[in-house]
Every structure is written in C-alpha cells, then in structure tokens.
Amino acid sequence: MNRLAVQLPGLSLKNPIMPASGCFGFGREYAQLYDLSQLGAIMIKATTLEARFGNSTPRVAETPSGMLNAIGLQNPGLQKVMEEELPWLAQFDVPIIANIAGSTMEEYVEVAKEISKAPNVYALELNISCPNVKKGGMAFGTVPEVAAELTKLVKEVSEVPVYVKLSPNVTNVVEMARAIEAAGADGLTMINTLLGMRIDVKTAQPVLANRTGGLSGPAIKPIAIRMIYEVSQAVSIPIIGMGGIQSAEDVIEFFYAGASAVAVGTANFIDPFVCPNIIAELPALLDELGFEHISECTGRSWKKGEPSVYCGA
Amino acid sequence: MNRLAVQLPGLSLKNPIMPASGCFGFGREYAQLYDLSQLGAIMIKATTLEARFGNSTPRVAETPSGMLNAIGLQNPGLQKVMEEELPWLAQFDVPIIANIAGSTMEEYVEVAKEISKAPNVYALELNISCPNVKKGGMAFGTVPEVAAELTKLVKEVSEVPVYVKLSPNVTNVVEMARAIEAAGADGLTMINTLLGMRIDVKTAQPVLANRTGGLSGPAIKPIAIRMIYEVSQAVSIPIIGMGGIQSAEDVIEFFYAGASAVAVGTANFIDPFVCPNIIAELPALLDELGFEHISECTGRSWKKGEPSVYCGA
Amino acid sequence: MMKREHMMIVAHEPIAENIYALTLTGPLVHEMNKPGQFVHIKITSQADPLLRRPLSLCQIDKETSQCTIIYRKEGIGTTLLSEKRPGETVDVLGPLGNGFPLDAVKAGQTALIVGGGIGVPPLYELSKRLVKKDVNVIHVLGFQNKDVMFYKNEFAKLGETHVATVDGSYGTKGLVTDVIAECAISFDVLYACGPKPMLKALEQAFPNKEVYLSLEERMGCGIGACFACVCRVPNSETAYKKVCSDGPVFKAGEVIL
Amino acid sequence: MMKREHMMIVAHEPIAENIYALTLTGPLVHEMNKPGQFVHIKITSQADPLLRRPLSLCQIDKETSQCTIIYRKEGIGTTLLSEKRPGETVDVLGPLGNGFPLDAVKAGQTALIVGGGIGVPPLYELSKRLVKKDVNVIHVLGFQNKDVMFYKNEFAKLGETHVATVDGSYGTKGLVTDVIAECAISFDVLYACGPKPMLKALEQAFPNKEVYLSLEERMGCGIGACFACVCRVPNSETAYKKVCSDGPVFKAGEVIL
Ligand SMILES: Cc1cc2nc3c(=O)[nH]c(=O)nc-3n(C[C@H](O)[C@H](O)[C@H](O)COP(=O)(O)OP(=O)(O)OC[C@H]3O[C@@H](n4cnc5c(N)ncnc54)[C@H](O)[C@@H]3O)c2cc1C
Ligand SMILES: Cc1cc2nc3c(=O)[nH]c(=O)nc-3n(C[C@H](O)[C@H](O)[C@H](O)COP(=O)(O)OP(=O)(O)OC[C@H]3O[C@@H](n4cnc5c(N)ncnc54)[C@H](O)[C@@H]3O)c2cc1C
Ligand SMILES: Cc1cc2nc3c(=O)[nH]c(=O)nc-3n(C[C@H](O)[C@H](O)[C@H](O)COP(=O)(O)O)c2cc1C
Ligand SMILES: Cc1cc2nc3c(=O)[nH]c(=O)nc-3n(C[C@H](O)[C@H](O)[C@H](O)COP(=O)(O)O)c2cc1C
Ligand code: FES
Ligand code: FES
C-alpha cells in the first residue's frame, strides 16, 4: 500500500505533492538536482499560443514572508512546449499538468486542444487568474459567467480532464467555484496569487516594472486555507491546494482544509529540494498523527467525527 | 511650521500617525506607557449599541508575518463608551475617531447619531467590513449599493465627518470606494483585515474558536499598498491607510501609494511604543528623502513629475 | 512599571527533556515584583514569528539584577529561543499581569502549591517568597514523566514536596489531585498553575477554600488592549476579565474556567 | 555541481564603511570553480526575509576549503547577515551561474579588469586566476569615496591598479572610464562588474574589443526556473537570457543592457 497515492480525475499520483506552475519552469533546472520521477506530478509554466517575453524587469520583489512577481506569462509558446519541453519531460515517470493561458477565449481553446494531445499531459490547469497580464487573465478569473463559459469551451476540446485555477482576488470564491463546477470542470486548483504592490522608499516608484504583481509565499497561506475550507464544502470536485506551502505540516493543514493534493510554489526558490523533502517526511508525520493514508486528512476540519477510513489506492 | 501636521475633513492632526481601531482599546493601557497627546489621533475600538462579549477564545492565531483575530467586536456598548471611555480620553489633547459597527443599518445610525455628539469625537469610521461577526459586518462591506446606502444614512445623522473603512475581501475595491464617495463619505480608511484561517495540525480543528478570522500585520502590507494605489487615483476624498505598518519607512510607502494619514494596528502589540517612535523618526526620514512636509509624499508613486510643493498646515 | 528592554542572556541551558532555563539580566529586573507575573518576549527582530511569547517569571533576583524563566520548547518561537546563546539579547516587555497574592496567607499558616508541567515555574518564586514570610509550604508537582520533570530538588529545599507523574515513572502514578487526596494534605490557601483541566479539578475539589489559579490564554498584546485573552465572569452575558492584565492569577470563582 | 549546504562562518569582519568580508568553510567550496560565479544565501531560517540573496564569490581557496564573499550592508538581508558571528552557519545554495571565461585571454596578453563599488569582489578571484596563467592584469577600481574603498592593496599585489573615486577623496576624481581614457590603457580583453551605467559606458567605449560584463538583476530562484532575471537579446521580440543561469557574465552585445 502506498500511503501517499491519490486518485484525481485523469491523475493517478504516487503522492499528492507537485510543484506549482511558474515556480518550476519546465523542470530542467530541478532535474539537475533530483529525479523528477519522485514527484506526484508537475505543473508546468503557463503556456500561451505564441511565445511571450513577459514584463520588464524588475519582476520580483520581496515582502514580509512573501514575494511579488510580475513575470507576465513569459513562455516559449505552444509549439516549442509541444516539440521540446513535453518530450523532454517524458523521460520521467511523472504526469504533467499543463497550465494554459491566453488573451482570448479562442487562444485558450486552441492551446487546450493541442496541448491535451501530448502523451504525458494528463490534465489541464486553466490559469484564468493571472494578475500580471493586461488582457484576459484577471477578468476570466473574477466574473463567474465568463469563467464558466471558458471552462465549457475548453472542456469541449480537451482530451484530458480540466482543472480551473481560482483567483483569490474575489469577493465570493464559492460563487466562482460553483459556476466553474457547473460548467463541467473536473477539479479546482487554488489559490493563485493575490494582487499586491511595493513602492521603493528612495525612488517613490513601484519596485516592480509592472507596478503591481502577484503575492505568493507563506504570507498568503491563511487566505488559501480559508478559501479551500469554504470551497471544498460547497463543491464535489477535488481541489489541488496551494499558497505558501513550505513543509509537510503545511501539506496536512491544506488537506484538513479540504484539499486532495497540493502544489508547492515559492518554496522551491528558497529550498530547491523542498518537494522531495516533503514527500520523504510525510509518512512519519502521518504516523505521528495516526493516519494510515493521507486521503483521510482531506476535509477533516469540517467533516466532524468522521470515522478514520482508508480510502487510497 | 510643523512638517507632520495634516488637515483632513474634521481632523486637524499634529501628525498623521494614529493607532488603528481594535489595536489600542480605548487607550488606557498605552496611556501608562506614554502621553497619548503625542498621537495624531486615536481610532477607538468598534462601538456597538449594546455591550458585546464577542467570540469564544482562542481569538488570535499567529501566521507567517501576520496574525488572525476573531475578537468579534467585543466592546462595552455605546452608553459606557459615551459615559466612561470618551470622557476619560478627553484629558488628552488628541482627536478621537470613533469606529462604529452594527448588525443592522438602524444600529449604525443610532450609534453614529449619539457618539458623534461627544466633544472629543472629531470623525466617525464606519466599520462596514468586520469579517468576524455573523450578521452585518461583511455584507455591508462587499456590496457597493448596501455600503452606499449605509453611508448616506449615517451622513444624515452624524455631527462630524464620516470615514468609511473598506474591506479588502472584494473583487473590485475601486467600485466600492466610488460608490461610497458618491454617497457622501468624507474620507476612506483602508484596509481592514483579510479573511483567513489556520488549522491545528494535531487536532485537525481550526485554531480560532470562530474558525475564520481577520488577517493583519506585515503580511498584508503589499495588498494594502496596491488597494490604496488603485483607490487614491479613482476618488478625490482622502485616505487613511493601514495594513502592516511597522516603521517610518512603511508610513512613507503608504503616503506614496496615496494615503494622507495612516493607522498602525498589529504593530502596537509587538512594540507598544511603535506610534511615538514612528512620529519621532519621521522628520529625519523626510530630511533624508528631501521632503519639506509629509503631505508631499501623498500619491507620489502615481503623480508623475509633479513639482515638490509645500502643502501642509 | 511595565517597560520594554533588550535584556542580556547570562545563562541558558536545558534542565530536562525540551525544558530550558533562561537567565536574563538588565535594569528591568528591578520592576519585577510579584511571583506569577510574566514577561512578553519577542524572539527575533523580524516579522516571522510575529507575536511576542508570554513566559512566567520563575526567579527574580534583584541583588544580581537577574531573572530566570523556565520554558518548554513547543513551537517555532520557543525553538528559536532555545537557540539563543549567552551574550545575545532578547526583547522583553514586562513585567505583565498581577501575580499571586502573598498576603492571602499569614506566617505560620500552610500554603498548598500545586503545579502541572510547564505551569510549575512561577510557583518557585512564589514559594520562596512565602517561605521568607514564614509560611509553611507544601508542593505538589505533576509531570507527564520523569524525563520532563524539573526543579524537584529546588522545591524540596523550600518545603515538603510531592511529585506525580502520569506514567508513574517518578513519584505517585497519576495526577496532582490523586496525591492531594492520597496524602490528605490540609492547608489554608491553595495556589496553582497548570493545564486547565487540573485547575478545574482543584476548583471543584476545594469549593470552600481560598484558591488562586493562574490561567493561560492565547495573547495578542499582553497588556490589555486587544481583547484576545478574555474569559467570562459568572452570571453575566457581557462581563469579562482579561487574563493578561486582570490575571493571569484569579481567585477561584472569579472567572469561568 | 550546485548544492545546498549549511556552511560555517570562519571569519566575518568589516573591511570598509558598511562593507564586510565573510569567510565560509565547507565541502561546497570544492564545487566552486569559476571566478564570477555566485552563491545564493538564505539568511534566517524563518519566512521573513523570505528570499535568498545573491552574492559573488570573491575568493575560492580549495586547500583550506574556504571561500570569501564581500558584501555591502544594504537592506534587511545584508543587515541580518552582518550580525552573524564566526561559528554560526549560513544556508548556501551554489555555486550558481557561469563565471568569467579565463581562456578568452592568453599568457602574455593584457586583461583590463574594471570594477565599480560592490562589483569589485568577483574580480579579485578572476585576477588571481589570470595572473596564475601569466596574463598581464591592469585593474581600474571605482568607488564612491575613500571610506567605502576596499581591496586596493590586494589588487595592487597582482598588478597595476588604478582607483577612481566619485568625490576625489582617493585616486583620480571621477569614474573608471575617466581613468581608462586618461591613462590611455591598452589591453586585449576587458572584464567588468559594477553598476549598469558603468557597464554600458564600457560597452560603448570599446565596440571592437572583446568585453565581458557581469550583470545584476533581482532574482527569485537563482537557478533558472522562475524567469525573474531575464534580459533581452538583440533583434528579437521574445528571445531572452537569464542572468542567474545563462550569466551573470555575458559577452558585450550578447544581451541588451
Ligand atoms: C501568562 C502565561 C504564562 C506562561 N508561562 C510559561 C512558562 O513559564 N513556561 C512555558 O514553557 N510556557 C509558558 N506559557 C506558555 C507559552 O506562552 C507557550 O508555550 C508559548 O507561547 C509557545 O510558543 P511557541 O512559539 O513555541 O509555539 P507556537 O505554537 O508556534 O505558538 C503560536 C502562537 O500560539 C501561542 N501559544 C501557543 N501555546 C500557548 C499557550 N500554552 N499559552 C498561550 N499562548 C500559546 C504563542 O504565544 C503564539 O502566539 C505561558 C503562557 C501564558 C499565557
Ligand atoms: C549575481 C549577483 C551577484 C552579486 N554579488 C554581490 C556581491 O558580491 N556583493 C554585494 O554586496 N552585493 C552583491 N550583489 C547584490 C546583492 O545581491 C544585494 O545587495 C542584496 O541582495 C541586497 O539584499 P538586502 O536584503 O540587503 O536588500 P533589500 O533591499 O532588503 O533586498 C530586497 C530584495 O531585493 C533584492 N536586491 C536588492 N538589491 C539587489 C541588487 N543590487 N541585485 C539583485 N537583487 C537585489 C534582494 O536580493 C531581495 O530579494 C549581487 C547581485 C547579483 C544579482
Ligand atoms: C514566479 C511565479 C510565477 C508564477 N507563474 C504562474 C503561471 O505561469 N501560471 C499560474 O497559474 N500560476 C503561476 N504562479 C502562481 C503559483 O502557481 C501559485 O499559485 C502561487 O504562487 C501560490 O503558491 P505559493 O505561495 O506556494 O507560491 C506563479 C507564481 C510565482 C511566484
Ligand atoms: C485584534 C484586532 C482587533 C481589531 N478590531 C477592529 C475593530 O474593532 N474595528 C475595525 O474597524 N477594525 C479592527 N481591526 C482592524 C484594524 O483596525 C486594521 O484595519 C487591520 O488590523 C490592519 O492593520 P494592521 O495590519 O496594522 O493591524 C482589528 C484588528 C486587530 C488585529
Ligand atoms: S492579550 Fe491583549 S488584551 Fe490580553
Ligand atoms: S532568478 Fe529565477 S530564473 Fe533567474
């Protein structure tokens, strides 16, 4: 029995730990440090139809227990990802979740249609919530009807299950989640970054060239936990949780809130070995907490008095 | 010339530094440590019509560079505040901003009408955004029409200018700000806390008895800065900024974003002398940055190339 | 008076499993008066961990300007604290709260002093002061097991001392209340500090005695301003006491445990 | 190969105003090969400050397993770093990036080495290596003023060394480019590290020479994964180089400054 294995739509994961999109590139750098086959899955950097350079630098700024980024969806474009990155990743025994973005619904649809054909892409993650691009991005992530429409269109063309990535920059995340579930999404991933800003005291100008950026890291963890807690009780599709995860304890906290798997973003920059380390530490932590299988932790903060039942692979 | 003096509707402040509501009680504890007359103003704990006990404990939880609180508007009620707290505060040469809350519009109106008569209350701060109370609180703070209606009703009865405190838990803070400005508010204060949660790894239960709470402290500073940056460009009423301020440099960052004065909340718990310390440090910092008067800093991150003009009292 | 001071560490060592004794020096010691008062410690200068940590005064020595704190390495704050070395400073706010009332018991009378686990430290200074007043002291200390036991000998020097361990690895197997019942200890005033279930049991066991209990609650400010640490008062919907500034020591019955 | 290691501080002292020399020891030194490479340092174990700080290797001594970094106390990270004492450890990820190409210049040829301010440190190991190869080295070092000047003597031991200070408090008053023009220095290859305006001026001044420039950019990961540190490549809308993993040293013209 594998105590960490989890089953999600399209994804049979040896463990529920995966690097978050944009925090792991296409895996090449981390592959120099450890065997990527150890990972539950990999969420690759957002892919758009054409190559994009992204925003001007500076693109990152530090904040208390967090960081702002305004990369602006830099990526080599669909064709290169299909021809170079995904085939390269195929050497590892690890499912890929393709994060896709676009400026128009048509662009999303086109990317989804193509990239979902790649043999090692087992699921899509619709990035409808990137705060760092002028067109698209944000609007798709904040208006339920728009998000639902996009989900529907992508579902129609995708050959693999579709996960939609929720933005935390909304008044009512449950409403968004419900609309997206109703539109046919197979799962949710949450949360993307919070829109933030820093201003340099000496120059009086924003630190980021793009002015605003997305806040990630431990600072946002309590917001992620709250949103997953709310959404997991309102929908029945699974949630891949993220936002400030740094340790095995954090992973358990996300499961308790309602996540069925998690992604680790910013922490990869602080400790490039964080994902394999967490995977290695989880079994001992499960022992300490008295769980047979990690899936028992999902939703435990709101599933009161539920008997401890093994429900894994 | 007083380089720190600022003029706001109803408020002629010797400096723009004030403790934030709920983080300073009614001043009694801090008065044992320093002379409260040093402060620009004091925002007192939210007052409701009747005394409230608030939520069960634990009411606070620590998070990375932040804290969650779910006090639940504990306060001695309007009458006691009018008869005991405000008269006691009158011994200090410092204007009081009365933070008021309620479960219904009527309650807000009643409290506003009475408390605005107190001789040392120079402005009201409508807490339409408290995430820790079941009724009222949140809804008033997230629906523009409701917030506008409440603002109008309170303006009708208040004998002093009315500031409205914005919630960051919204998709579009500019829309809220515009609606509230249009309804006649004299100023805005922002931001209140972000809704968050922590779950105890050992018990699988939320750390706070109330389950969710409001996130404050340095962790939220980049979100506050971004929102003030957006709102200050969209409205013409002044903004009292808050959210994670700990130092004189932080104060300047809030001014650059668009604030005309600031409030310090959580930092009072870490260093009870933080407000007088910041006030003491500001003049040297203004020298270093080359400003005659602190008001020159307001909005400097977006007022491009504006000549440096003295505009203070 | 309460002040904020960067106090210098003069000694810092483990005295039991995950239990450390930290001795600090600085003028602030001269403000520390009552046993049962606590200090609020900021462990790093950075924003993470953000909040101060409340820790009780275990010994106050005005002659040497030193005070000692005994703490258990629990979470991140106390873990970081445990890494500090002599010569470094810590940021201390204090003394806070009202301590144990010494004048509740007279010379020649008997005080029963009951501590559970990490509730034991403040009772040491209390006992020293009572002994100085010629009060007869009896100590009952409860620990999980022998490995986390501390200060047994120090207490024994001051008066009769009983130990209970949950696993029976030292002294009586069981709880402090078992020892009190077993030994049929009689006393005039009871002082206690420890986990809430222990305090509740003591309150119930001695409804007609003068009992003083030191409480713990999660804190924000530690000085009475934030309303984080309130507890309810009997027979009222809205009345409250703050553990940090009205307590941490309350007379049994004063607040609802 | 890049590794993560907790390296021990063996020496740490100020060598000029707000400039510190930090000497570390550990097996990781044996992975450090090229002058111009940098390490990424996590200063506290806590989440604030969150990110690692990129700092260049100034000396690599495999015999003693020691490396030295020279840094300026700037913001919060370097301030906290400056408080660390010998015996403590720091969390180092490295070595990162590609250093200066040593084989761009042959024995008997002349290398002009130009450093500005806190760009000077990586040039010291470079110069030592070139001297070992019997390359003739000429150094031009620029500082704001005399108080923040460092390593002048160390460089002087390796070869001809000129200093410029902005305020004229030492050496030539003005910029490094003034010195180069004034002294009509001739050379085969130029290596430089320093503020961007200096690098741009050098690139423009010597369009027909082989010039290597070490760049700085705000970093997230430091290893090429996050796309924080990119710069544009001439004649392309989308092509880019990453300062952390493709640089920090680039041949002039390779990227747009
Ligand atoms: C008045 C008072 C006196 C105390 N005296 C002592 C003492 O002498 N020795 C000792 O070992 N412990 C004492 N405690 C408990 C001590 O404060 C906690 O063990 C400590 O705060 C844990 O911090 P941490 O960072 O290690 O744990 P974490 O779990 O990381 O702490 C997270 C947050 O929870 C708070 N917290 C955690 N446990 C407690 C607790 N039991 N009580 C209050 N807040 C808590 C922390 O202060 C912090 O804000 C006392 C508590 C109070 C209220
Ligand atoms: C490849 C490389 C090599 C470097 N080598 C050295 C060296 O040998 N000696 C030295 O003194 N400095 C060097 N620097 C600059 C050094 O990284 C910054 O001075 C340092 O990060 C400032 O951190 P702080 O916490 O003191 O400042 P803060 O202003 O608090 O830093 C906030 C954030 O901005 C980043 N940052 C601030 N200034 C710079 C900068 N100039 N370049 C890149 N990021 C910055 C920090 O890394 C951090 O993420 C180098 C930079 C790079 C990119
Ligand atoms: C540098 C950086 C780049 C990111 N790029 C993307 C992206 O391309 N697509 C996406 O959906 N999310 C992106 N994100 C968001 C992360 O995937 C993740 O949702 C967020 O950072 C919260 O997790 P964390 O706190 O663990 O980093 C990016 C985050 C960072 C820090
Ligand atoms: C313990 C606590 C209690 C608070 N109570 C109130 C309140 O009664 N009314 C209110 O408008 N805001 C209240 N706030 C919010 C603060 O006034 C402030 O908006 C927020 O904490 C952000 O500022 P900070 O990060 O400096 O704390 C409270 C905050 C804290 C931490
Ligand atoms: S901890 Fe703030 S009132 Fe007691
Ligand atoms: S710093 Fe992450 S790619 Fe260079």
Question: Architecture of chain A, according to CATH?
Answer: Alpha-Beta Barrel
Average residue pLDDT of chain A: 93
Number of helices of chain A: 10
Domains counted in the coordinates of chain A: how many? 1
Spatial sequence of strands, sheet with the most strands of chain A:
3-14-13-10-9-8-7-4
Element string of chain C (H = helix, E = strand): EEEEEEHEEHEHEEHEHEEEE
Weakly predicted, low-confidence segments of chain A: 307-313
Keywords (chains C, D): 2Fe-2S, Electron transport, FAD, Flavoprotein, Iron, Iron-sulfur, Metal-binding, Pyrimidine biosynthesis, Transport
Organism (chains C, D): Thermolongibacillus altinsuensis
Pfam family, one (chains C, D): DHODB_Fe-S_bind
GO molecular function, one term (chains C, D): flavin adenine dinucleotide binding
Question: What does this protein structure show overall?
Answer:
Chains A, B: Its EC number is 1.3.-.-. Chains A, B: Pathway: Pyrimidine metabolism; UMP biosynthesis via de novo pathway; orotate from (S)-dihydroorotate (NAD(+) route): step 1/1. Chains A, B: It is an enzyme of class 1 (oxidoreductase). The complex is a heterotetramer, with two copies of chain A (313 residues) and two copies of chain C (257 residues). Chain A is built from ten helices and 14 strands. Chain A has helices at residues 28-31, 78-89, 105-115, 138-142, 144-157, 173-182, 221-232, 248-257, 267-270, 274-289; strands spanning 6-8, 11-13, 17-19, 42-47, 60-63, 66-69, 96-100, 121-127, 162-165, 187-190, 194-197, 212-216, 239-241, 261-264. Chain C has 257 residues and is α/β, with parallel strands linked by helices. Chain C folds into two domains: 3-96, Beta Barrel (Elongation Factor Tu (Ef-tu), domain 3); 110-214, Nucleotide-binding domain of ferredoxin-NADP reductase (FNR) module (Rossmann fold, 3-Layer(aba) Sandwich). The two termini of chain C are 29 Å apart. Chains in contact: A-B, A-D, B-C, C-D. The A-B interface holds A 63-66, 68, 142, 169-172, 194-199, 201-202, 204-206, 211-212, 215, 217-223, 225-226, 229, 244, 249, 252-253, 256-257, 289, 297, 300-301 and B 63-66, 68, 142, 169-172, 194-199, 201-202, 204-206, 211-212, 215, 217-223, 225-226, 229, 244, 249, 252-253, 256-257, 289, 297, 300-301. The structure holds flavin-adenine dinucleotide (2 copies), flavin mononucleotide (2 copies) and FE2/S2 (inorganic) cluster (2 copies). One flavin-adenine dinucleotide binds next to strand 4, strand 6 and helix 1 of chain C.
